Amino acid sequence: MASTPTRLERQHRLKTRALPLIAVALAAFIAGVILGCPGSPNRDAAERYVAAWSEGDYKAMHDELSTASREAIKLDRFEQRYAESEAMATMTSLSGGEAGGDETEAEIPVTVETRAFGTVVQPLRLTFGEDGVAWQNSLLFPGLELDEELGRKTELPPRAPILAADGRPMAKGPSLARSHPLGDAMIDVTGVVGTPEEGPDLAATALGFDPGEPTGISGLELAFNDRLSGKPGGTLKAVPIKGGGKGRELGTGEPAPADPLKTTIDPTLQESAVSNLAGQLGGVAVLDAKKGRVKAMAGQAYSVIQPPGSTMKMVTATAALETGKATLDSEYPVVTEAPADGRMISNAHDELCGGNLVESFAHSCNSTFAPLGMEIGEEAMTETAEAYGFNKVPAMFDPESTALVDPPVPTIPKPGEYNNELGVSAIGQGKVQATPLLMASVAQTIANGGKLMPTPFTTEPALQPDAGPVRVSSAKTARQLTEMMVAVVTSGTGPAAAIPEGQVAGKTGTAELGPTGETDSEGNPVLSEDAWFAGFAPADRPKLAVAVMLIEADADGGTVAAPIAGAVLSAGL
Q1: What number is the average pLDDT over the span 341-349?
Q2: Would you say residue 14 lies in a domain?
Q3: Residue 34 phi/psi, 5° resolution?
Q4: What region, left, alpha or beta, does residue 77 occupy, with left being phi > 0 and alpha being psi -120 to 50 degrees?
């Protein structure tokens, strides 16, 4: 049986057991002292600075600066300096690690992903004033010293070719020596490459191209400049601010050419559209009648807006049929003019015009459609037009490419903004403005049973518009509109659009722009006019939709625009 321990033995055992606890407490105390030392707030500030940078929150970065530094470099200049630095480095993203340091300095490892120079891993060194980070140029990029700034030497890859839908190159070769193997007609859609003096300076240092280097300045060369340019390479350096020396390498990357850009363009249709436009001021747009894809573009097919004239009656007729304001059998008086917008609206050449809705449409009776616009009302008129694409950015490219091209937006007044021009808007005059691309899209919608499709130029999903299909009208209304548009070609104002390959459904248009300053033989002022035609074929199984616009044309739409549309449709069918 064990003996009972003495008091001294019990004390010794307690002291022995307590030693590990004392050691743990001491370690905790020391750690607390270290974490609570003056260097910890600085490390935290360094990590906050880089975290804000990674999120593009320059205000939060600026707030970390000391009072003296914030006064020395204002926020707008601070943001500008960082934008310039990131563009120089072609930075795409940034992340930081765990900071170290003491009461005056902190250092944090930073990883920068770049477009041209690979992954750059360098430390960012921060010094501190009394109440925050001390501003210095070396904070503009990881790895810089106080007397250094960023520099680079870039190497460009070959520019990618632009392919037609069948895979043949429409444009290829070096940036300043592009060739067009399928003929110069392809230039109307591919556009050209040039120098900043010839167009917008899209060198965009953030992409790795230095100012003055060749870049796309029109057409697809402009819209998809980034895509066609590929990935530049080269060396990113830290170079002395005062010059001298080759600098230190921070990162390197190899140039990588882009894959060929495949488009939706049909070379036969493109050649036909350009040759039939024949250098006249205006444009031709051709679309896939079911899918909406662009098949050809000639002239100012999407770059100029003009009043669409009576091609707008496709929109007005849609609104009238959808709202029940008219049926195909609705009857209208045979007159030379009719009241709308508080004044008399005349028919072209003061012709007698009227009958049922089909006949009024076929003969393009302003005396029917201007008052009909008044019956439809502002809200329904605008709503229908906007469903077709008015008051919207054209759905051609992805958002970035659209911003580069900056196409004009077709317009129609909003409700309450017509200012007594609802009737003339219904016949495509007043404040209504459109492009051949939009009016081809209106025809495509009718051909597609009332469903509007986006109008992309390429099959690459990343480069297509964000827009999706839009149900503009019922299939029944679309069939009725088709019947009306067939009548235009068979017995109305558009027989010149007829072709042997199939029945064309269409609508002529002539938009008055204003007096030319000249007079005719009878002393009447001569008006400057645009000639239009929009339609599709074959009417029973639509394949192609087309629109033609001739600015300041020699004759009306049925005379000069309809034959061009017919010739292009014939070439495609």
Answers
A1: 94
A2: no
A3: -65, -50
A4: alpha
Structural contact between residues 408 and 328, judged by C-beta atoms closer than 8 angstroms: no
pLDDT of amino acid 12: 47
From the DSSP assignment, how many helices (H) and strands (E) are in the chain?
18, 23
DSSP string, 498-550: -BTTB--EEEEEEEEEEEEEEE-TTSPEEEEEEEEEEEEE-SSS--EEEEEEE
Is the domain of 95 the same as that of 225?
no
| Mean pLDDT score, 357-383 | 98
Domain assignment present for 232 = yes
- The rounded distance, in Å, linking the Cα atoms of 275 and 536 is 19
Same domain, 116 and 174: no
230 and 374 belong to one structural domain: no
Coarse DSSP helix, strand, coil percentages of the chain, rounded to the nearest 5 percent: 40, 25, 35
Q: Is there a single domain that holds both residue 208 and residue 293?
A: no
Last residue of a domain, one of 122, 146, 170: 146
Q: Output DSSP code: residue 570.
A: H
Strand-pair partners of 253:
234
Residues catalogued as catalytic: 310
Alpha-carbon gap, residue 353 to 367, rounded angstroms: 7
pLDDT of residue 200: 62
Gap between the Cα atoms of 178 and 158, Å rounded: 11
> Can you give the pLDDT at residue 215?
85
If one compares 155 and 515, the residue with the highest pLDDT of the two is 155
Which whole number is the average pLDDT over 183-191? 97
Look up the CATH number of the domain holding residue 177. 3.90.1310.10
Domain that holds residue 251: 162-262
In a domain, 6, yes or no: no
Mention every residue, 6+ apart, whose C-beta is less than 8 A from residue 546.
284, 285, 286, 287, 440, 443, 533, 534, 535, 536, 565, 568, 569
- Tokens 């459109």 found at: 434
What is the helix (H) or strand (E) element at residue 417, kind and residue range? Answer: none
Would you say residue 21 lies in a domain? no
| pLDDT band, residue 319 (cuts 50/70/90) | very high
Same domain for 369 and 468, yes or no, is yes
- Phi, then psi, of 178 in degrees rounded to 5: -70, 135
Model pLDDT, residue 39: 44
Q: pTM for this one? A: 0.82
Q: Distance (Å, rounded) from C-alpha 380 to C-alpha 372?
A: 12
Do 455 and 531 belong to one domain?
Answer: yes
Average pLDDT over residues 126-130: 93
pLDDT, tens digit (0-9, with 9 covering 90-100), for 233-285: 999 999 998 877 788 999 999 999 999 999 999 999 999 999 999 999 999 99
